[in-house]
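User: I'm new to structure prediction. If I give you an amino acid sequence, what do you actually give back? Let's try with this one:
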Amino acid sequence: MHISAADVPAQQFYHLLTQTVIPRPIAWVLSDNGKGEGMDRYNLAPFSFFNAMASDPPMLAFAISRKEGGSKKDTWVNLENQRFCTVHIGQVAQHEPLVDSSVELPHGVSELHRQAYELVTHDAHPTPRIAEAPIAFFCELDHMHPLGKGITAVAFCRIHHIFINDAVVKTLPNGRIVVSAAGVDPLARLGGREYAKLGDIFQLDRPTK
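Assistant: Good question. You get back a string of structure tokens that encode the predicted 3D arrangement of the chain. For your 209 residues, that looks like this:
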């Protein structure tokens, strides 16, 4: 089958992309609403158009689309106004709260009240992390890059600090830090309502010439 992007409505092409660019990591993003106390201050949402962009400077990026009515999603607004966020890698065991946080609520109404979350503060960063997530990137918005007609924007976020649960990481004698992919057990996104977890993990040697 050959499909021309020009011949397919955007919504249908979205479904094609989500079923063919697989599996996708999920950025579980906590951002600052700018008002409220405790959990009320924070927004939490998952984004699967996401990946690492660079190591120098260390940068993550994820795409945010507008709400159905055309207004900016809360994460988009919060990053433009407050600039800081915490990007988590959620585990398969956290699939229920992660998917639940995709609910669309009015701005300023926190998704954190819908599940039993524990937040852990970081002295050098304005936004906390979710205690249960094995990996958290403490980030600051570098820039927001609008795409096409502005329905979607890509948030480029600079990493200032990384938390990795001690249970999934070790330091080798040569000083190299090694993270266990099996230990992280990340939840991955497919198309529609489908998700995935890691299967067999294997190693390959890269050619030297």
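You can read the tokens as a compact description of the fold. Here is one thing that stands out. The longest strand covers residues 135-147.
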